[in-house]
Amino acid sequence: MDALNNLMYGFGIALEPINIAYVFAGVFAGTIIGMLPGLGPISALALMIPITFAMEPSSGLILMAGVYYGAIFGGSTSSILLNAPGVAGTVATSFDGYPMAKKGMAGKALAIAAYASFIGGTVSVVFLMLVAPLLSKVAVSFGPPEYFALMVLGLTAVVSLSDKSLVKGLIAAVVGIMISIVGIDLQTGTERYTFGSIQLLDGIDFLVVALGIFALAEVFYMLLRGGGGKEAPRNAIGSLKLSRSEVKEIAGPISRSSVLGFFTGVLPGAGATIGSFLGYSMEKRLAKDGDTFGQGNIKGVAAPESANNAACTGSFVPLLTLGVPGSGTTAVLLGALLVMGVNPGPMMLEQRPDVFWGVIASMYIGNIFLLVLNLPLIPLIAKILDMPKPLLLSLILIFCMIGVYGMSFSVFDLLLLLGFGLLGLGMRLFGFPAAPLILALILGNIMEESMRRALQISGGDWSIFIDKPISLALLVLAVLSLGLPLLKKRRKRAV
Amino acid sequence: MKTLSLKRLSVLALPLAALSGLGTAAHAQEWTPTRSIEFIAPANPGGGWDTLVRTVSRVLQEENLAEQNFAAINVPGGGGAVAWAQVARDSGNPHKLFATSPPIILVPLAGASRYDHSDFTPVARLITDYSIVLVAADSEYQSINDLFDALKENPRLSIGGGSAPGSMDHIAIAGVAAAAGMDAASVNYVPFSGGGDAMTNLMGGHIEAVVTGAGEAVGQLGEGSQLRALGVSSPERLGGGLEDVPTYQEQGVDYTFDIWRGVMGAPDMPEEAVAYYEELFAEMLETDGWERARDQLGWIDAYQNSEEFGAFLDEQQEQFSGVLRELGLIAQ
């Protein structure tokens, strides 16, 4: 009952009127930031450091955490409505969310995203509260060989993400890995694929690729098809209500993905984006109607949305219990905590229980706020689809450009965006799936770095990958998940 | 506080003087910014440069020291190279400053930037941090020499750091290893994507030791910690949670390493502007607001004016290129 007492203590802090105001302000600002592509939680939090400086540390963290999970919550909106992911963690949501919107089910997709986010967020806070101190061991048990194996397992999802042609899916994945290689190689300091351009030294931002290949390519595609006058009227936002059978259908994916997402978030270096992809591909394989994923399956929205919010909460485990940030966003949070005079780490639970439990309790409240805030907004926001098509397309275009420019203030990135838009269009016209490219882009970098780091530690001995039990288990899983579907296909063909 | 009110008075006096048609010769030296100052962090939000830029801007504003607003701007890319190229094009602009530290020397030495410190105007060195070597709390190594003895026997033992080979953390460990009589190039330095990443791997027992900034490590040390420090690169012991960590020199290894941070400006910045900023930053370091922020962030004041800072940078370049040559990492 210790946890319950602590939680009550936390609620005592989180329910102070000023802190309730901060939770609300945080999640509200976060939702809006999340909806706008490009304006991610990292820059928003960095801008807030001077504001939080003078605050009570618990209030400061409550506010900033609210912005963070609020942004992941809100990021699904533009993924679903415009095919333009608001934050990196919601890219996978667009795979089925956008097709749903096209079918006139935008309202339902947004509602599912909101419910899934809420459940993912809440389930993971329960985990965070009960097992955070224990989990710090799990977080550090992943070294370079384990990360490599995890990324390999993640990459096997390429098979399930390539709907028609496996070969085309693999080609897309290789292109994704090539894009992930651009920039200075961390292991040797060598420049790769930069062609002497200093703008490419840091590599290509993930969101530039995602916005180009999804949103911009969609705009081009519609233009090519003559303004899209023939398409079914999109004004049907549809009902927000879920039928009983639909609730039943998404209950499993949401609960599985919440747990999976949380544990992915706990690993420093994985996080919401990888969590959402793992959740999506896991559900696609488990589902009986897995082949309709990508065409507007409600499970394809529910899984990544619960996983990314759960991962977001999970990333607070290494931050609060070890004092190490697992992602760019939590690095900024760590910086803010240090400025406020709080040292996150093993002693934090004893030294600053007010911050630790206050923030956990505030997450319960914040998630409820988010749900209450987002549900009534859905019909209003979804009205965006009622716009005449020329207006809507221009709006997406402006959205993407502001988003990309706002990230780096670089015209070069705008040209990159255009380039990836054209690449995305070409891929669509020739039937190459975009999802494997994005997945490989996310995983490729960590996979390569972890592999080389592991080999450097082992002195070039490859057995390091099978000597470590976690790494071995993950690799076996990878082989199975790759082999079984292929076997199944072959058997089907034989029959 | 006295200087502050004087400054304010002079701000009021300037337009009056101009109005009354008094000679401006006396004021020509007293340059003041005429618009808001672009203060660039050549990296993404969250890192060392960004923290410096935001903290300085905030303190200047809170203490009402500057006539004009300092606008913090992030120009990430190429480990700083993108921002440097941008500032280098803005020769003579007195309203453009950027935060700087050893990479302004190391990145060009590695051949990844056309511009180096000599292309810009040094304004002031502000603070310094030191390099620290950590091991797991239950490690058998008790001193920096224990670690080096083990390394001599088994050169494959891996030491993790938060930056690429040939950058700060690598130089720091290679330098101390050389001073301890080892071949610097034999250290198996494993680069991670940040000091935090490296420390997590140390906690998990995946590597033998970590070299990182003392400021970044201080939160990880102390009671209940899973990590322990073997030595720090400062000339004297540090305070604030690090007072128990012996210096390398105390352990018989004659080596110090500064992770300094300062401010530079556009090329050929007018002298009056440099003088203005020098004085402004010197004044800022005296304020209570700065003291509070500095202590919280574990920084140590290390002010140098423009001239001293420029000479110091030349020295550093020589020292770093020596270490890099020994490591075989210098660009031809």
Automatic annotation (TrEMBL), chain A:
Checking InterPro entries in the record gives:
DUF112_TM (IPR002823)
Occurrences of domain DUF112 (ranges) = 20-439
Query: Transmembrane ranges?
Result: 20-39, 110-135, 147-162, 169-186, 206-224, 259-280, 324-343, 355-379, 391-417, 429-447, 470-487
Q: Which domain of life is it from?
A: Bacteria
* Keyword RNA-binding included in the entry's annotation: no
Pfam families, per the entry: TctA (PF01970)
Keywords assigned by UniProt, alphabetized: Membrane, Transmembrane, Transmembrane helix
UniProt-recorded name of the protein? Tripartite tricarboxylate transporter permease
From TrEMBL, chain B:
PANTHER family recorded: TRICARBOXYLATE-BINDING PROTEIN, UPF0065 PROTEIN YFLP
SUPFAM superfamilies from the UniProt entry: Periplasmic binding protein-like II
Protein name in the entry: Tripartite tricarboxylate transporter substrate binding protein
Q: Does the keyword tRNA-binding apply?
A: no
Keywords per UniProt: Signal
Organism, per UniProt? Answer: Halomonas dongshanensis
Q: Where is the signal peptide?
A: 1-28
Protein family per UniProt? Belongs to the UPF0065 (bug) family.
* Top-level taxon: Bacteria
